[in-house]
Amino acid sequence: MSLLNGETIAILGGTGPQGRGLARRFAQAGLTVVLGSRTAEKGAQTAAELSEATGTTVTGTDNQSAAEAGDIVLVVVPWDGHGELLSKLKPELDGKIVVDCVNPLGFDKQGAYALTVEEGSATEQAAAILTDSTVVGAFHNVSAVLLEDPEAAPVETDVLVLGDDRLATDLIQELASTIPGVRGIYGGRRRNAHQIEALTANLISINRRYKTHAGTRITDL
Predict the structure, then answer these.
(1) Within 10 A of 202 (CB to CB), how many other CB atoms are there?
(2) If we measure between CA atoms, which residue out of 210, 203, 127, 115 comes closest to residue 160?
(3) How far is the C-alpha of 184 from the C-alpha of 152, rounded, in Å?
(4) pLDDT tens digit string along 129-138?
(5) Distance in angstroms (rounded) separating the CA atoms of residues 45 and 47
(6) Within 13 Å of residue 126, how many CA atoms lie on the same side as its CB?
(7) Residue 6 region, left (φ>0) first, then alpha (ψ -120 to 50), else beta?
(8) By residue range, what is the domain housing residue 184?
């Protein structure tokens, strides 16, 4: 029996490229998906567009309502607003599994680079704020372009899942594996999230040099 049976997947910041891409893939896998956005109108519009494009049903609303509706809540928002949003939504996220997908990156003329985060990583910052939630890190290195591309099936990549709760990491590994071609793989405890988030800067450099949408694969598994 699937651990995901009956679970609602909410995506905060779900109207951006990565959020839309994940919503598309989860909806196509038959999961119940709620998109959150800064405004309910934008969330509803994006959800309607996804529903029409995929022949599925995706619901859209504001971030607060999405957080309330979700059993598993993905955080896919810009780094600049990460801490502020999670602090605001802490009551709605208490008792839930929260999946932080955010990469703290900066950009200059030389390209992307990892930012220093006081708590160690975006995932650890989320855990420090959401003290009554089970925080997991995942989906950091998946190309939004491939997720959104209906012709890109399967998406050949692995998703490293980081967390301190075995049941929660198993659940998010299964969630990742609902996307054709993707494997969810345990990547260590939450304290190891920094290097996974930072790796996205390397992948951006690879993609620019080779004009591709690189991901990661773990060998010998």
Answers:
(1) 16
(2) 203
(3) 18
(4) 999 999 999 9
(5) 5
(6) 36
(7) left
(8) 8-210
CB distance 156 to 180 below 8 Å: no
What CA–CA distance (Å, rounded) separates 159 from 168? Answer: 15
Asked if residue 1 belongs to a domain, the reply is no
- Identify whether the C-beta of residue 27 lies closer than 8 Å to the C-beta of residue 90: no
CA angle 90, 18, 53 (to 5 degrees): 115
Total of domains in the chain: 1
CATH code of residue 128:
3.40.50.720
The DSSP symbol for 54 reads H
Cβ 67 vs Cβ 92: under 8 Å: yes
Query: What is the per-residue pLDDT across 23-71, written as a single tens digit (0 to 9) for each?
Result: 999 999 999 999 999 999 999 999 999 999 999 999 999 999 999 999 9
- The four Cα atoms 70, 180, 170, 200 give a dihedral, to 10 degrees, of -80
Cα separation values, 221 from 116, 180, 189, Å: 32, 17, 19
Q: Radius of gyration over alpha carbons of the chain, in Å?
A: 16
Residue 1, pLDDT score: 58
User: Is the residue at 215 inside a domain?
Assistant: no
Residues 25, 27, 31: CA angle, nearest 5 degrees = 115
